[in-house]
Description:
Layout (H helix, E strand, L loop, with lengths): L24 H20 L6 E2 H8 L3 H13 L3 E4 L3 E4 L1 H6 L8 H16 L2 E8 L2 E8 L15 E3 L4 H8 L3 H15 L7 H14 L2 E4 L6 E9 L5 E10 L5 H16 L7
Antiparallel strand pairs: 1-3, 2-3, 4-5, 4-9, 5-6, 7-8, 8-9
Amino acid sequence: MASRLPNRNVRPTDDPAPDGPDAPDGDAGSRTLRRGLQVLDAVLAGGPDGVRVADLCRAAGLERPTVYRLLATLLEGGHVARQGRFRYVPGPRMAALAPAGTLPNRAVHLQPLLARISAAYGDAAFAIVREGPLSHCIARQVGTHPVQILVIEVGTRQPLGVGAAGLALLSALPDAEVDAIVAANAPRLAAYGGMTPERMRLLVRATRERGWSVIGNHATRGVLAVGVAVRDAHGRPVAAVSVATTLARMPRERQQLIARALGAALQGLPPGAV
């Protein structure tokens, strides 16, 4: 009896996935995921000083173009962040996945700061962190003034930059990350007071020149808020705080006063608190 020819379209389960252009879609997707996880593992193992692309190439056994493509996706998702111009560190999304006690609880450490600022100036204060292209409110303090502008609640997520705290944090990020975040949020920006990517980039530039953010009539009409970025012990922007009130209560002089107070309060945080 003639021997049966093997079916060349069936691959034994113990054979490695083909790497060429003829690889099935599932294999290509699995290969990309595996490589992305290798790069992420290398970043996580790199320590607080971060790792360079050359280090990632060696650790993952990948070429530079591949590593850059994977990093772009990891940066956009918040799993990786830049440290300076050439190094990469774990991003804010990894903090949410870390076991309790391994990373500072930023809400706990920033809440007393919000309480002091809110008591001193009478207006509501907020703290946010970044989740990919979004801001996530982690703490809020109600002030003593009869009119309180509670623009967002704890747990609110919105495009990074449409509020004062988010704008402060966005402006503190490297240009490439700013561009990626603005592009990712572009379809949603118009819902926030007619915000546009071009307007967002102008606000980022003004915030960098000023040293603190100010934004009004975008996330909430009739409101103006100022914000300051929060940096960790290595200088990385990891959160932001803001104070919001009515336009009438926030003239230029008071904006500057509150921004300076926020900055001074952040300087007083214990080392390693954020």
